[in-house]
Give the backbone structure.
Amino acid sequence: MLQDEAAKRRVQRYHSGMHSPLIDIGINLTHDSFDGDRTAVLARARAAGLVHLVITGASLDGAEQAAALARTDPAFLSATAGVHPHHASELTRAQLPRLAAVLDDPRVRAAGECGLDYFRDYAPRADQRQAFEWQLELARARQLPVFLHQREAHADFVAVLKAAGPLPPCVAHCFTGTRAEAETYLEMGLWIGITGWICDERRGAHLLEVVRHIPADRLMLETDGPYLLPRTLQPKPASRRNEPAFLPEVARVVAAARGESIAALAASSTATATHFFGLNALFQS
Ligand SMILES: [Zn+2]
């Protein structure tokens, strides 16, 4: 009987933790895999305890779409506006005013996603660096936070950021690197975004150690949906598509790795994201 009670309380605690307020700081909600059921995806996100989503804008078209989508529900949605390194070649000097116009939309709370990706190398590296530098300038001119992407390009990425001089707050989104790389980012004053990569026992297990060393006021959570479905989800969803309603699973794994409750991690990561993206006004209105 006592055991039953303890088990019941554990389940209750788990579920109450699973409904702690969370903010998904990186969701590719304009992706066409959401075209058929975006309203239902948003409803499931709310039911799972999410209080806000920051929609990633990762190309000129994508940034405009993300801002437009954010305008449909200003209390629940905001957007970033940037050009991902994969699309770096589309950001020519002539296109800068177009990106600048989206960055001036009040629904846009950060510049990016921008950075360097030498893993795929879809765009020439010189184009990637140029697009990255331009976006850091646009962010600085507006004092907008920056949503950063880096893959297999750590040294150049750090070099570009350091050469850029003083910047607004920056988050290394979907951090997948080593503890040493995380330490470098923290010393540089960056925030760190953790996705369901940490739930992947094949390539993300090292992050279980890394997240123990990230101060709570620098740590934010994201799904990066539709990508990176957490592999630890039980039961496994029928589709491989990731969505904001699965963010509590990322929170569960990160909280366990840090030796804290889901509720505590939810509270700190939500406060951190609210501060980072300047969402305070939303939650007070
Ligand atoms: Zn990214």
In short: Residues 85 and 128 are 5 Å apart (CA to CA). Strands lie at 22-27, 50-55, 77-81, 108-117, 146-151, 170-172, 191-194, 219-221. Residues 113, 149, 173-174 surround zinc ion (CB under 6 Å).
